[in-house]
Amino acid sequence: MSRSLLLPVNTICKDAAGVAGNIFAFGLFVSPICSFIYAPLGCFEQVRMFGLLMVDIVLFLVIVVGSLEISDFTIRRMVVGFLSCAALISMFASPLFVINLVIQTRSVEFMPFYLSLSTFLMSASFLAYGILNNDPFVYVPNGAGTVLGIVQLGLYSYYKRTSAEESREPLIVSYG
């Protein structure tokens, strides 16, 4: 066996921790997608969700195959790192629409507490992991996610005190 194939023990442990964390996070974010696909919705919604899932899988495979075509490891790391940062920041920024709705309606009924809590905890743990490993591709987007998670939890604690009767406004008005 050549010497270049052997890895130091601390590299193996560091990579194992990253892989385990990513597998756990992947499971957290894939389980709601699977529940939407198998939920008793109308046929159109199920086909739409399945189509979106297939688009995500194809996009992921294109990124994997495309990144493996880049022979220089440093350039490959930069390309995949920037793509991952963009994806994570867009994922963490998506609840901003719900935050706007919470402020307008003064109700947290559209912002699930456990989703906000799990997003904050996952972001904070990966922020610490990225800082400890000095990896800006991990700590920059997760730092943004941690701040947005704190904002969500703060809004939840502030607006949960508002009575449900005062704040319930319909999202869609029916005139039928």
Molecular structure report:
α5 (113-132) packs antiparallel against α6 (136-159). The protein has a domain at 3-40 and 90-167. The model is unreliable at 1-13 (pLDDT under 50). The longest helix has 30 residues, at 9-38. Helices cover 77% and strands 0% of the residues. The relative contact order is 0.09. With 176 residues, the chain is mostly helical. The chain is built from seven helices and no strands. Belongs to the SWEET sugar transporter family.
Beta-strand proportion? under 5%
Order of helices and strands: HHHHHHH
Overall residue-averaged pLDDT value: 75
| Largest sheet geometry | none
Distance between the termini: 75 Å
* Helix count, DSSP H or I runs of 4 or more residues: 7
**Structural class computed from helices and strand pairing:** mainly alpha
Describe the global form.
globular
| CA radius of gyration | 20 Å
List the uncertain runs.
Answer: 1-13
Helix proportion: over 70%
Count of DSSP E strands? 0
Protein name: Bidirectional sugar transporter SWEET2
Subcellular location: Endomembrane system
InterPro entries: SWEET (IPR047664), SWEET_rpt (IPR004316)
Family: Belongs to the SWEET sugar transporter family.
